[in-house]
TrEMBL record:
<dbReference type="Pfam" id="PF02826">
    <property type="entry name" value="2-Hacid_dh_C"/>
</dbReference>
<keyword id="KW-0560">Oxidoreductase</keyword>
<dbReference type="InterPro" id="IPR050223">
    <property type="entry name" value="D-isomer_2-hydroxyacid_DH"/>
</dbReference>
<dbReference type="InterPro" id="IPR036291">
    <property type="entry name" value="NAD(P)-bd_dom_sf"/>
</dbReference>
<dbReference type="Pfam" id="PF00389">
    <property type="entry name" value="2-Hacid_dh"/>
</dbReference>
<dbReference type="InterPro" id="IPR006140">
    <property type="entry name" value="D-isomer_DH_NAD-bd"/>
</dbReference>
<protein>
    <submittedName>
        <fullName>NAD(P)-dependent oxidoreductase</fullName>
    </submittedName>
</protein>
<dbReference type="InterPro" id="IPR006139">
    <property type="entry name" value="D-isomer_2_OHA_DH_cat_dom"/>
</dbReference>
<feature type="domain" description="D-isomer specific 2-hydroxyacid dehydrogenase catalytic">
    <location>
        <begin position="26"/>
        <end position="319"/>
    </location>
</feature>
<feature type="domain" description="D-isomer specific 2-hydroxyacid dehydrogenase NAD-binding">
    <location>
        <begin position="115"/>
        <end position="288"/>
    </location>
</feature>
<comment type="similarity">
    <text>Belongs to the D-isomer specific 2-hydroxyacid dehydrogenase family.</text>
</comment>
Amino acid sequence: MTTRQRRVLVTSRSFGGGGTDFAAELDAAGYEVVRASPAHDLEELASLLPDADGWIAGTGPVTAAHLELAPALRVIARYGVGVDKVDVAAAAARGVVVTNTPGANSSAVAEHTVTLLLAALRGVPAADRRVRSGDWSGWQARELSALTVGVLGLGRIGRLVVERLGGFRPRVLGADPWVPADDSIFDGIERASADDLARSCDVVTLHAPGGQTVVDDAWLAASDRPVLLVNTARADLVDEDAVAAALRSGRVWAYAADTLATENHGDGASPLLAPDLADRVIVTPHLAAQTREGVDGMGSMATADLRAVLEGRQPRHPVAP
């Protein structure tokens, strides 16, 4: 009797896109690798999930309906840290292990955060557009060292952002209700609440896990100065309509993000993509984690955990339901 070759479904767009070919590693270890769209469309996956033993999943949803199609599935290795789109409870009920890749791209996201912050602070994209149209007129900006920066969320990425801000020497406030007051992070920054950040900061960068809106009309109204907002975390942390209105009124100085709640164009586009806001809004298409090092880190962790489960070992990064 011939043993069926174990099949790994890969729906992560960047899997193997760094410096290491993890698909080739899986092939050499005896696995069949099948790729599909990161959208996780049920119709597309209907012919692939029934024979999948493992799934290296991207940012698309993994629902109970997907799991219904996958009777042989034993592991979902989420390619990234967020599992909010994975029905972890439904997976556990079927005996499917879910893993993720915590910390693999933290440094990349922290660097991108500071990149967006500085680009927005100095108006770099708008300046480039003006020069290309023949306009060499300038404007006065601010130096980061003269500002107060609020960091909302002091997990891996938030802490790395604090570390990278150190060279610029701004005043830094950190807000995270889950971090105790005696944590060493507060040896170098001031402890604050989310509301304190609204009242006291020139710049606020968001690194909370999502699931609730923090920056809304009330939060924006509490500010006593125009604020620069940076969001490389989750789109739902921000009420985009409120921020668009605050940009027009001058309450928000600039907005820079790696994600939007609505990623459509035309009539369905985010209000933050309105043409009149283009000089003060910077948006990148989920680039924060996309460095060679970050991609290789995620690929290495996802592949190792997937193989661990399929080969009868304990994965290093299981996610509890």
